[in-house]
Amino acid sequence: MLPVVSIVGRPNVGKSTLFNRLIGTRKAIVHDEYGVTRDRHYGESFWNGRDFTVIDTGGYLPDEMNVMVVGIREQVHIALEESDVILFVVDVKDGINTLDKAVANLLRQQDKPVLLVSNKADNEERRMNSTEFYELGIEDLFPVSSINGTGTGNLLDRVVELLPEEEEPEEENDIPKLAFIGRPNVGKSSLFNALLNDERAIVTDIAGTTRDSINSNLEYDDKEYLLVDTAGLRKRTKVKENIEFYSTIRTDRAIRECDIAILIVDAMQGFDAQDKRVIREAEKFNKGLVIVLNKWDLVPEKDTNTVREFEDYIYTSVPQLYYVPIVTISALNKTRIHRVLDVADEVIAERRKEISTPDFNDFLEQMLGEKPLPMKRGQQLKITYATQVKSNPPVFKFFMNSPHELPPNYRKYIENKIRERFGFLGVPITMVFRQK
Ligand code: GDP
Ligand code: GDP
């Protein structure tokens, strides 16, 4: 788990600008194949040899003043719960206002390290003016310009000093981590609780995690899992906008830390843009994937084809997910809930699968025979050799002439053929093509 730095402050002080600067070149390019664009609140940064996560808490805030004060208070609490260092951003162009004072009061009442960032200090005069913020009672003050980058190096030096000691790399631990993700009210907690409360389940809470942590160890049929529920925390928030913020933060974090992402969808509501975003995110991080269609009890007049129709609907709306297994359940009636674990087991095994190099090259030869590589710039493309360089998650490396000329549809063809031959149910496959 990487240390976490949160950015807090009232709207328009430049939190998201600072966030983008701290994420820098590591920022994922916002290019979404599913046509979903969305603000990012969560990213990774690297400075002086340390990796850490940055959270921008500015995403959702109601406009109305009364609600805003409550909203900010909750966001500060989220930041405190989630992070190791807090960056409290103020705007030197505007000076101190009441919301800044409210945030400062909350931050002074706790022990986490807080750095006061006087943003928009684009020139010397504004850097000088930043001293007025000492009035907020927070001593570590950094004038920065998030727009032109001035001062951010000093700020980052201090951030890195304040990060907790680097953890020893964890011992390889084979217990798979399953994250239950999905929109609010799809039934994440219901499924989570149904599995944990099952009489055959042996459950141990994980000690030493934060007070709101909702990870549990589940032993079932002699198999162990670590279950991560992303719903628990947000149940404490009252402001509507923060509910979404909570779930986004928890979801992004759970996705990065899990082995298998289990996307829960309400069968009556179907798949939406947010579901596509999270599953795409999980795919990008090469997590194992399972889709659960919950509330199956509510689907009227089911017959033998109904499951098939729902599967078709999902695979048609997001064709890229054709390799992801779908399970229909009712968390409420506890129907087929263990099927979720069985399918997760399958995906775990597939993700760990190793194909021997001779087998893979036999496959390669046959595949190339069925559909020869095209000519490019008067030259016959050739793949001479390929091998699985790692598993869990799987990565395949192909050696060829002119890797840049490989057409995307041929790439897709290779992936389809790998799946046809070797399976890899629910597992994103990484393929790298190198110049031979
Ligand atoms: P947020 O609401 O706190 O996330 O603020 P934004 O990052 O959206 O920034 C609000 C406005 O301040 C935008 O118009 C930014 O371009 C501007 N801004 C952010 N950082 C700086 C800065 O360092 N200098 C100046 N001059 N403007 C900035
Ligand atoms: P979460 O926000 O994703 O954790 O969703 P919850 O587990 O809190 O469930 C939201 C609502 O859906 C609750 O009222 C549940 O009782 C209901 N619910 C959950 N699973 C099912 C199900 O399988 N069938 C039906 N009919 N209702 C369900």
UniProtKB/TrEMBL annotation:
Gene3D superfamilies: 3.30.300.20, P-loop containing nucleotide triphosphate hydrolases (3.40.50.300). Pfam families: KH_dom-like (PF14714), MMR_HSR1 (PF01926). Residues 3-167, 176-352 form the EngA-type G domain. InterPro entries: G_ENGA, GTP-bd, GTPase_Der, KH_dom-like, KH_dom-like_a/b, P-loop_NTPase, Small_GTP-bd. Signal peptide: none annotated. GTPase that plays an essential role in the late steps of ribosome biogenesis. Associates with the 50S ribosomal subunit. This is GTPase Der. It comes from Gracilimonas sediminicola. The gene is der.
